[in-house]
Design a protein that fits this description.
- The complex is a heterodimer of chains A (365) and B (605).
- Chain A is α+β, with helices and mostly antiparallel strands.
- A five-stranded mixed beta sheet of chain A has the order 3-2-1-5-8. In chain A, strands 4-10-9-6-7 form a five-stranded mixed beta sheet.
- In chain A, strand 1 and strand 2 form a beta hairpin.
- In chain A, helix 1 packs across helix 2, helix 2 runs antiparallel to helix 3 and helix 3 runs antiparallel to helix 4.
- Chain A is elongated and about 100 Å long.
- By secondary structure, chain B is mostly helical.
- Chain B has one domain: Cytochrome C Oxidase, Chain A (Up-down Bundle), CATH 1.20.210.10.
- Chain B is 60% helix and 2% strand.
- The chains are: A alpha+beta (365), B mainly alpha (605).
- Chains A and B meet through helix 1, helix 2, helix 3, helix 4 and strand 7 of A and helix 5, strand 3, helix 9, helix 10 and helix 11 of B.
């Protein structure tokens, strides 16, 4: 019922507007074309000025309301992000100044030079000096922006420091898989045809496969694989090796101010240095529920909006404690190779029973 | 309208359409040859325009629907379900599949069908012969084909809305592998086949039109109409056509490879893919980034295909209604030319974070920011044109001023996004949505509105209703800013594009209220567009009649034709041109048409 009422109201509003419009046209014909035009001109000229003033007030008000909801009120969570913020602010100041100047001129001119009976427009077809000025000045300003921007860009995309920790991030519809290289510090080989969602979500090459000409790579045996949550160390640079299992995804890290696509078949990289632990950031943002979220930033299917990962930034000690508890992925696929299982042979059965369950949990996620 | 039949030295042109309707002895055209299979550039332009308006309505409606989801994610719209069915709206909520389909088709339709065909198609067809002094296009038949390919493209696209698995839903950019793999998403099944067919038909239409525009401008100018006497509209449409001719074939080739990957087992874009529920695919050795290169080689110039006609029309309408010459005519042409060249050299700025080589990226930063220079020249020249003018706020002029304002607002954020060091943070966030909607979407739409209001009297011999036009303008301008300005802030919070629902994200859920506000404004602004559509169709039949040949006091040639020009445009000889198009208020005369010979004691400009 409300729907019909709404429709009826809308139709009525339209009818009223239409009748007014028609009536004003008839009045215009009666009054004469010239006078009508002058009147409409005055109203629109005034509205131009009104729009300028209200627009500027609206700009201020919008900023008051929304600025605090952006990332810019808190410091960047990564060292790299500080540079992003600084070039962003420089660009904001430059473009903001141009924005205000040109918009004010535009609407002021529109208001100031509206048609008047005795006003004679100024025949002013060109002026080389002016044109050179506003070619050269933007060119110089832009050159400066390019130089700063590229300096930062090469820093972001340059090599990660030697001491950087390496983590592999793989996107899939619709979640993230993380892999640490384990004790040997080497990410073992993988091949996508080895993928088994239940036991080998990344297709690690850990057995000989004569049909695919694959040889067991021992480096895979200590790799640690997990989903959902990624642990990083505060102050320690980390280099991500990013890939995708199916379509293109994107590792979007808003608080760190960085992102990089995850492309099937082509590994990409990104490195950063976290500045604050998750706990510290909760205090900074004054939000006890805060978490660093990995947002997929490349449309990847109908579940795109739910493709979330969590990054926990912790201190080195906490990280070491956590890491010590992790078991290589290899042992989940080959429980019989797990030294823990061998030690306590009598309890082998229950362990065997829990392992497939764990695997399943991962697969479902 | 009946005068149109009797008039027309060039009425014989229509007999080139050698169908069953060829009756050489008879000048009377049947309904079919006059309104349907017409070869008159004016009729074809109206066909483009009306088809474009229908698509704009549909595309706009789609945005209203997906904004309903974004603004009111917890509401249930059961009445909508009754209208649209369970595929689109389930349990009163728009489904994710429908949401992504709407986003995708909205983008495709708006960019290609409305702002390319609807804008270029309409005004290139209408203005080129009229403003250069030609009786019709170089090939009226090709021109007609161009429209029919466009219509066919539209019908195929429309049909994709009704297939069982839904229309394509992978974004208007249709990145492979998502678009290449039927199993990756329901929208990538037959919906994508239809999307590709529609787009290929569209490319054909666009090329047929573009070649015609270029040939006409270069070869068919009337006596005295040198290139440097052309109105800026024609220059803009010329460069638009050139860009289209050079870039659409690349998109075409990209689509052909995509069709091969989809249907014939090739691996141009595919490598190392494992699909849940299907398993590992055999494809190896392809690169998904290749598609992005091919796509953006059109995709970025496309932005200028959309924007340049609006710039040209804005320049023309602004000069006429300021009663002043356009400032820096040669600089305007120069900047159009610079934009045309640079538009081909910046495509990879859409790919800074795609895995592109960072050094290549840096070259594109430089070239991208370079494009701000000609854009700045244009803005300053428009401002100077207004300065010390005597401005008449016709609806066309209002939309022109709105165009400049929106172009500035959206253009400046291009400097942010063109800088890879900022793009690495803001890429694919709402900041990008705000940027391109302002600078390309709404600004070009404003250019189109300006053009329609300004040339409507020439098209139909009647005026549109001014009061409705003023209401339309002010609601749309305010609405556009209210919708897109706050999105910059969402972008600065890192909020990603193309999310169906933000409520589960700690980082982005603070904007729920803002999203509701934006959606509400979208509905109101869309309703204002209905006023325009009503005004347009009502005025065709009932609008106030034009009584003078030159109602705006303009200099260009189209205003020397009869009020309702027939096929062939001029009765008798085509007028000769003696001067440029912008002698307004020169030597104390309000305007001097291009057809007037230069007087002996006239000052030089």
């Amino acid at each position: 019922m409300t729907i019909f009422l709404t429709i009826a109201v809308i139709v009525l509003v339209f009818l009223v507007i239409f009748q007014i419009a028609k009536a004003s046209e008839y009045v215009g014909i009666l009054k004469g074309e010239k006078e009508t035009r002058q009147q409409a001109n005055k109203i629109n000229g005034f509205l131009m000025f009104g729009f300028l003033v209200l627009g500027l007030i609206g700009l201020y008000w919008c900023n008051e309301l929304l600025f605090k909801k952006t990332l810019l009120v808190h410091p960047s969570a990564s060292v790299q992000g500080e540079k992003v913020d600084s070039i962003l602010w420089i660009t904001l100041i430059v473009t903001g100044a141009v924005f205000l100047a040109t918009q004010i001129l535009l609407f002021w001119f529109a208001f100031r030079y509206q048609e008047k009976e005795n006003h004679k427009p100024f025949y002013f077809p060109h002026n080389s000096k002016l044109e050179v000025i506003w070619t050269v000045i933007p060119a110089i300003v832009l050159t400066i922006l390019v130089i700063i921007g590229l300096r930062d860009w090469f820093y972001f995309t340059g090599d990660a420091p030697k001491n950087a920790m390496v983590v592999e991030i793989t996107g899939k519809q619709f979640g993230w898989i993380f892999r640490y290289p384990g004790e040997d510090g080497i990410l073992g080989k993988k091949y996508y045809k080895e993928i088994d969602p239940a036991t080998n979500s990344l297709g690690l090459v850990w057995k000989n496969d004569s049909t695919l000409h694959l040889k067991d790579d021992p480096a895979t045996h200590d790799d640690i694989v997990m989903e959902q949550t990624l642990y990083l160390v505060k102050g320690k640079p980390v280099k991500f090796i990013i890939g995708s299992r199916d379509v293109i995804h994107d590792v979007g890290l808003p608080q760190f101010r960085l992102k990089m696509d995850a492309v099937p078949g082509i590994p990409t990289t990104m490195w950063l240095t976290p500045k604050y632990t998750t706990e510290e950031m909760r205090k900074i943002t004054d939000n006890p529920n805060f978490d660093y979220e990995i947002a997929c930033d490349q449309l990847c299917g109908n579940g795109h909006y739910s493709m979330k990962g969590i990054i926990k930034v912790v201190s080195q000690e906490d990280f070491d404690v956590w890491m010590a508890k992790q078991k290589p992925y290899y042992y989940l696929a080959f429980p019989d190779k797990d030294p823990d299982n061998k030690k306590v042979d009598s309890t082998a059965k229950p362990t065997m029973a829990t392992n497939p369950l764990k695997n399943k949990a991962i697969a479902i996620k | 309208m009946s005068t149109e039949i009797a008039l027309g030295a060039g009425a014989g042109l229509s007999t080139e359409l050698a169908t069953e309707h060829h009756e050489h002895h008879e000048h009377h055209q049947s309904f079919i040859t006059k309104y349907v299979f017409s070869t008159d550039h004016k009729m074809i332009s109206k066909q483009f325009l009306i088809t474009g308006i229908i698509w704009a309505f549909l595309g706009g409606l789609m945005s209203v629907l997906f904004r309903l989801q974004l603004g009111y994610p917890d509401s249930h719209f059961y009445w909508l379900q009754d209208v649209l069915g369970k595929f689109w709206v389930d349990d009163g909520r728009i489904t994710p599949q429908a949401y992504y389909a709407l986003v995708t088709i909205h983008g495709t339709v708006m960019i290609f069908f409305v702002l390319t065909a609807g804008l270029s198609g309409t005004f290139a067809n209408f203005l080129i012969p009229l403003q250069i002094g030609a009786r019709d296009m170089a090939s009226p038949f090709m021109n007609m084909l161009s429209y029919w390919f466009f219509l066919a493209a539209g019908l195929v696209m429309l049909s994709s809305l009704f297939v069982e698995t839904g229309p394509f839903s992978g974004g208007w950019v249709a990145y492979a592998p998502l678009s290449a793999l039927r199993d990756a998403s329901p929208g990538s099944k037959s919906g994508m086949d239809l999307w590709l067919i529609a787009m290929i038909l569209f490319v054909v239409s666009s090329l047929l039109g573009g070649l015609n525009y270029v040939a006409t401008i270069l070869n068919m100018r009337t006596k005295g109409m040198s290139m440097t006497r052309l109105p800026l509209t024609i220059w803009a449409l010329f460069f638009t056509a050139v860009i289209g001719i050079l870039s659409f074939p690349v998109l075409f080739s990209g689509f052909i490879l995509l069709i091969f990957d989809r249907n014939f087992g090739t691996s141009f874009y595919l490598s190392d893919i494992f699909i849940n529920g299907v398993g590992a695919l055999p494809n190896e050795g392809g690169t998904a980034i290749l598609y992005q290169h091919l796509f953006w080689f059109l995709g970025h110039p496309e932005v200028y295909i959309v924007l340049l006609p609006a710039m040209g029309m804005a320049s023309e309408i602004m000069s006429i209604n300021s009663r002043k010459p356009i400032f820096g005519y040669m600089a305007m042409i120069g900047s159009l030319f610079a934009i045309c060249i640079l538009s081909f050299l910046v495509w990879a700025h859409h790919m800074f974070v795609s895995g592109l080589n960072p050094f290549v990226g840096s070259v594109f930063v430089l070239l991208t920011l370079l494009i701000a220079v000609p854009s700045a020249i244009k803005v300053f020249n428009w401002l100077t044109t207004l300065w010390r003018g005597n401005i008449r706020f016709t609806p066309g002029m209002l939309f022109t001023i709105g165009f400049v304002s929106l172009f500035i607002s959206g253009g400046l954020t291009g400097i942010w996004l063109g800088d890879s060091a900022i793009d690495i943070h803001l890429h694919d966030t709402y900041f990008v949505i705000a940027h391109f909607h302002l600078v390309m979407g709404v600004a070009s739409m404003f250019g189109m509105f300006a053009g329609i209001y300004h040339w409507f009297p020439k098209m139909y011999g009647r005026y549109m209703n001014n009061t409705l036009a003023y209401i339309h303008f002010w609601i749309t301008l305010v609405g556009a800013y209210l919708i897109f300005w706050p999105m910059h802030y969402e972008g600065l919070a890192g909020m990603p594009r193309r999310y169906y629902d933000y409520s589960s994200w700690e980082s982005f859920k603070q904007f729920a209220e803002l999203n509701r506000f934006i959606s509400t404004v979208v509905i109101i602004t869309f309703a204002a567009q209905l006023l325009f559509i009503f005004n347009f169709f009502y005025s065709i039949f009932k609008g106030r009649k034009v009584t003078t040949k030159n109602p705006w006091g303009a200099n260009t040639l189209e205003w020397t034709t009869p009020i309702n020009p027939g096929h062939g445009n001029w009765d008798g000889e085509i007028p000769e041109v003696h001067r440029w198009a912008y002698d307004y208020n020169k030597d104390g005369r309000e305007f001097i048409p291009q057809t007037e010979p230069v007087g002996a004691d006239e000052s030089q400009h």
